[in-house]
Design brief:
The chain contains 14 helices and 24 strands. It is an alpha/beta fold. The longest helix is centred in the middle third of the chain and has 14 residues. Bound molecules: uridine-diphosphate-N-acetylglucosamine and phosphoenolpyruvate (PEP). One of its GO terms (biological process) is cell wall organization.
Amino acid sequence: MDRFLIRGGKPLHGDIVIGGAKNAALAIMPCALLTSETLSLKNMPQIVDIKTMCDLIHQHGLDITIDDKDPHHYSFKGDITNTEAPYNIVSKMRASVLVLGPLLARCGKAKVSLPGGCAIGTRPVNLHLDALTALGAEIEIDGGYINATAPKGLTGTRFVFPFVSVGATENTVMAATLAKGRTELLNAAREPEICDLVDCLIAMGAKIQGRGTSHLIIDGVDALHGAEHSILFDRIECGTYACAAGITGGELRLIGAKTEYLGSVMHALEECGVEVFQEENAIRVRRTGSLRGIDIMTEAYPGFPTDMQAQFMALLSISEGASMITETIFENRFMHVPELNRMGARINVHGSSAIIRGVHSLSGAPVMATDLRASFSLILAGLAAAGETSLNRVYHLDRGYEAVEKKLAACGASIERIKS
Ligand SMILES: CC(=O)N[C@H]1[C@@H](OP(=O)(O)OP(=O)(O)OC[C@H]2O[C@@H](n3ccc(=O)[nH]c3=O)[C@H](O)[C@@H]2O)O[C@H](CO)[C@@H](O)[C@@H]1O
Ligand SMILES: C=C(OP(=O)(O)O)C(=O)O
């Protein structure tokens, strides 16, 4: 298992190219199952989760090619030869469940392993199943698998999500594009990644209204066609590197990012003393003064994203005064707290809230990554800490961040991957 060795205390300065959004790409790749024509996707991040989704889609029968000249440009084409998503792939990555809606809509049947829980929470898929059932699917759970059939095809419906779910919205929108008649989804998620999915589906010939709102109207069509689509920039990768500029007291230009998608993250950065400027095709972030404590509550978009919670926890651990972070999306997303405390942070967890009492400095330590964003919070702490931090279990990070050590080292960080 690889680990990172970080020697902290160096302010970061330079340019970082922000890649395509992991969470948009993972939702958009299954759209390839909705057509027999070519779906061509540009600006794909080079991360392990994309490889996992490729493995899944390939075993459903599609061919995947990566452009010789552009490793971020993928093409998907072929007919579905297998409607089963096996446990050995789904268990690696929960987003695998996003093939369920497309397979069902296109083939009238799908057998998808239940994803199970993960380090940050139990993460059931009941809303995905309820919404697909409302579209006419018959669903049974057997032997750890979701067996879904729609022998007469799916039929448009009106479905109100009892609470907001990104994945359930995505699965249902994809399925509804090929259903008979109109589907109305209320209380749908409206994350920018869902807008990106809707844009791709519209480019494929889908009829969708309400993009960016919680009320989506989808008029089913007989077939979708091929399309070319460029994946939206990763607002979480962007926010993460903005925290790196903030925690080290440096200045970074984040190429390809736009403040319009950062919303609550940008306000939180500014409130705690990190300046953010939109430039042409980049965001500039810098900190010259001290950091101030703030309160944050994670919420569905446009609220503060849970995927930025751990990184802000690191930033707030060296901010003046006390801060409170309340996590409302996942029940177990404070696994980084004991590791940050081992580096000298003063954080106490009370139920779904964490109180962070800012300390003057952190000190390097051996720490262990527990999930993707927790891993980066420990890198951030390591970049600011005095001395050496050894971060174990880097494979969590490789799931969702491209070339972390190269991007950070190019801006002056001392970070090295130790292979083992
Ligand atoms: C690949 C991808 O895009 N992942 C993102 C997606 O995950 P994901 O799509 O899994 O997240 P959801 O929005 O569905 O989950 C939100 C909450 O609803 C619960 N829930 C969800 C579905 C369901 O059927 N039943 C249920 O109870 C979950 O356990 C969680 O507590 O959105 C999350 C919330 O912004 C992000 O943290 C993840 O990075
Ligand atoms: C929780 C995350 O991803 P996933 O839903 O793929 O586990 C994340 O990106 O922080």
